[in-house]
Task: inverse folding
């Protein structure tokens, strides 16, 4: 019975994943939100990042930049690695190869399922798998401003599905704005770049405006 | 940095980074883990640093997604999943961002737990309880479309109260590359045949690993200890027999003919302490064909788990009476 539940949600997700990049590609690149003041943008982003890291620092009384404990509610101690479960050890991830086995792609591309059980199961790697380069889109750009503090996004992504903080919620936002200012046109090559950064400009300060 | 060049490298996750990050180790507080006690709650937290290589686009999309996913899972507060309290990112350079994950701290993992278990090993009840918790955690992850992919005793934390907490999932793609920092080779022992054969795979991979761990809880040593992919497959077939031709995946390069025609041996030869239901469940988890393998939810419904309340007392009395044929039926 839970199988049935799973497969319907997995399907939804599959559909969402398949269609979203398609939408993105069909449009011509335009300057959707007018010219961007890159200096202002970069100032805003830096201020935001400082704000976030200051909050992290206070919450945990730990200086994450210098890797040093500060005084506060948490009494920090340094434990030799061998005395702690291996799980807590530091590790490295390469940015370009997000360690997703190549064969995983095969599961979503070639081995497409005929029966619902296979579909449900194969949907899993797709959903949690690393995206290909083409999938880098606004959804993710917006997230980056917060460097992992995803909970901070809820104020403007959470209108439809606040608890799920899902990429899809943001898509709606994107298309709404796109319609609003779609008549503004500039040259296409730079516009492609601008439209991406524009999301940052639009979304970051908006919380202050509203 | 170099993208994995060939899909035939099954250790694709880590081979790409084998050398690159080593040069960067010098700096940080490598070799120690930061752990803290919250004086208000008395609870312990620990920091896990993940250094993420970045390019002009900043953090990789996959990393951002994984963090978002972990945070979303966190809202469910599942008792068998390690608590993630916060995620803090610090930019180190244009090429590197340090992502610090603040986790609850648990003192030991299942590996140590098994090593420290006194002489006769864990009681059958203890094993059953651990398995039940492990499968609940797993079924939670699977129902949230998260595959662990690297389940092993080191990734399963056990609190001093005996509570099981799964760790290292979701961001597993990040975490699992311990190899980048330590010379330890990523273990193949818990890998299912479909991964060893480089066929397509999904959540059943975790069930296979769980099966291996199930057996290990009784044996206190791993069930299949292969030294290479082929060796690992060989070890598996020595116990479970060579699967029939029609079950061999079609999308793989390794031919079934490479392996001797072996027949399945009774699983109780390898896990003598297990009872009948347990053995049955174990074989359902160690099913070669991933589509026929039991799911986490179904495994929890197995009769092995259905005897708890009335039988607990008698069972614990029976503990000492080890039946070689796995004869303790409850």
Result:
């Amino acid at each position: 019975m839970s199988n049935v539940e799973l497969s319907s949600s997995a399907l939804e997700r599959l559909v969402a994943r398949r269609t979203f990049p398609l939408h993105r590609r069909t449009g011509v690149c335009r300057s959707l939100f007018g010219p961007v003041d890159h200096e202002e943008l970069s100032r805003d982003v830096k201020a935001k990042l400082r704000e976030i890291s200051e909050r992290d620092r206070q919450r945990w009384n730990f200086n994450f930049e210098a890797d040093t404990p500060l005084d506060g509610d948490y009494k920090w101690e340094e434990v030799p690695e061998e005395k702690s479960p291996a799980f807590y050890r530091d590790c490295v991830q390469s940015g370009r190869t997000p360690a997703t086995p190549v064969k995983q792609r095969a599961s979503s591309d070639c081995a497409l399922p005929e029966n619902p059980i296979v579909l449900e199961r194969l949907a899993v790697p797709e959903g949690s798998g690393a995206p290909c380069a083409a999938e880098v889109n606004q959804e993710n750009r917006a997230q980056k401003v917060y460097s992992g503090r995803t909970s901070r996004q809820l104020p403007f992504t959470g209108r439809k599905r606040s608890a799920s903080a899902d990429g899809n919620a943001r898509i709606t936002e994107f298309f709404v704005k796109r319609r609003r200012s779609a008549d503004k046109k500039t040259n296409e090559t730079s516009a492609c770049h601008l439209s991406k950064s524009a999301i940052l400009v639009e979304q970051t300060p908006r919380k202050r405006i509203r | 940095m170099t993208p994995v060049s060939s899909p035939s490298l099954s250790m694709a996750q880590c081979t790409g980074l084998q050398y690159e990050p080593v040069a960067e180790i010098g700096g940080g507080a490598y070799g120690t883990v930061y752990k803290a006690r919250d004086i208000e709650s008395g609870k312990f937290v620990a920091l896990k640093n993940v250094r993420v290589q970045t390019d002009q686009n900043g953090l990789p999309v996959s990393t951002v997604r994984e963090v978002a996913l972990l945070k979303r899972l966190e809202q469910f507060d599942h008792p068998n999943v390690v608590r993630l309290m916060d995620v803090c990112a610090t930019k180190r350079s244009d090429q590197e961002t340090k992502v610090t994950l603040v986790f609850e701290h648990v003192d030991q993992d299942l590996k140590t737990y098994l090593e420290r278990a006194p002489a006769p090993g864990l009681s059958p009840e203890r094993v059953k309880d651990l398995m039940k918790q492990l499968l609940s955690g797993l079924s939670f992850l699977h129902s949230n479309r998260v595959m662990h992919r690297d389940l092993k005793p080191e990734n399963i934390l056990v609190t001093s109260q005996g509570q099981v907490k799964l760790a290292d999932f979701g961001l597993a793609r990040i975490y699992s590359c311990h190899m980048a920092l330590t010379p330890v080779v990523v273990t193949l022992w818990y890998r299912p045949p479909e991964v060893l054969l480089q066929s397509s795979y999904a959540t059943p991979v975790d069930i296979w690993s769980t099966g291996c761990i199930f057996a290990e809880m009784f044996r206190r040593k791993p069930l299949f200890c292969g030294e290479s992919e082929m060796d690992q497959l060989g070890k598996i077939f020595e116990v479970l027999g060579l699967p029939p031709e029609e079950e061999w995946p079609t999308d793989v390069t390794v031919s079934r003919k490479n392996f001797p025609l072996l027949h399945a041996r009774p699983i109780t030869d390898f896990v003598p302490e297990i009872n009948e239901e347990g053995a049955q469940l174990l074989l359902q988890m160690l099913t070669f064909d991933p589509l026929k393998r039991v799911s986490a939810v179904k495994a929890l419904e197995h009769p092995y788990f259905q005897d708890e309340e009335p039988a607990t007392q008698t069972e614990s009395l029976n503990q000492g009476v080890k039946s070689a044929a796995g004869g303790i039926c409850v």
Notes: Chain B has two domains: 17-104, 110-312. The two ends of chain B are 55 Å apart (CA to CA). The domain at 110-312 of chain B is CATH 1.10.510.10 (Transferase(Phosphotransferase); domain 1). The mean pLDDT of chain B is 82.
